[in-house]
Amino acid sequence: ISGDPLYLSIDAELSEATYQIISTSSAQAGFRSGAGAIMDVHTGELIALTSFPSYDPEVMADGHEVEIIDSYNHDDRLPFLNKVVGGAYTPGSIVKPFVAYAALSEKTIDPNKVIVSTGEIVVPNPYNPSNPSRFTDWRAHGAMTMREAIAFSSNVYFYTIGGGYGDQKGLGITKMSEYYREFGLGSTTGINIAEEQAGVVPDPAWKKAVFNDDWRLGDTYFTSIGQFGFLTTPIQMLRAYSALANGGYLIEP
Fold first, then answer.
1. How many CB atoms lie within 10 A of CB 29?
2. Quick one: which of 154, 147, 150 has its CA closest to 112?
3. Are the beta carbons of 180 and 70 closer than 8 angstroms?
4. What value does the CA radius of gyration of the chain take, rounded to a whole number of Å?
5. CB atoms < 10 A from the CB of 173, how many?
């Protein structure tokens, strides 16, 4: 007996188009895989959700196409992994708006204050003065306010407001990690799909537990640009950005 129709928020055609875009752009860029999702930032309804490469569920259900199933099992791109919820990746610069939000909320910096990027900041090494620590930008951006720093994705600006440099104080790792967690990073979203990963927001306790080492200023700098052990899932980042877009509501996808 046929059951009743089940209606989802997922748009099948949009999901298929998203899959095609990701698969094509991955091939062009030489990437091994990719993932993407589109969500209504007010209701949490997922409109598209795709993970590349994927698999044909009919093939798996029938079980007859042994060679195809074997190719799935031995594909190092992990087609069975739903990368939107189960793949944890280093976020990089997409965390910068949350550092900016934290700096504004804590009144760490005026958004119109100008910081100059010459392409790097240099921190003296007290143990070896001839070998200072250098933290680089992806280019010398010149003078920037916060708006420009977000637009240009300046590492130097976010090193500075994250860890402090020169006459500008920084948030510090305690406040910065606190705000990351306010936006749901480092925890699951509650989405009703199996194998969701929580990810990692680096902080001194995490470093001590994993590396048995003390936290350093450079660790704060790297955490302010989404690196150094930072792991997030695509659905986490989608949810976090939704909170920026919808007035501050951390919704459940």
1. 8
2. 147
3. no
4. 21
5. 23
Q: How many C-beta neighbours within 10 Å does residue 153 have?
A: 17
What token pair was written down for 144?
């920037």
Most distant CA pair in the chain: distance in Å? 79
> What's the pLDDT tens digit per position in 39-86?
999 999 999 999 999 888 888 888 888 888 888 888 888 888 899 999
Q: What percent of the residues of the chain are helix, what percent strand, and what percent coil, each to the nearest 5?
A: 40, 15, 45
Q: What one-character DSSP code corresponds to residue 89? A: B
| Six token digits for residue 63 | 């079980």
| Cα→Cα distances 171→82, 130, 144, 217, 220, Å | 35, 29, 19, 12, 9
Residue 21 structure tokens: 């875009």
Give the tokens for residue 66. 């042994």
Instruction: Report phi then psi at 106, rounded to 5.
Output: -90, 0
- Across the chain, mean pLDDT equals 94
The pTM score is 0.90
Tell me which residue has tokens 């007010």. Answer: 42
**pLDDT the model gives residue 244:** 95
H runs (alpha helix) in the chain? 12-29, 57-62, 66-73, 83-86, 96-105, 146-152, 155-163, 173-182, 204-211, 217-223, 234-245
Unique residue bearing structure tokens 């200072």? 132
Pick from 178, 179, 176, 183: which is nearest to 235 by CA? 183
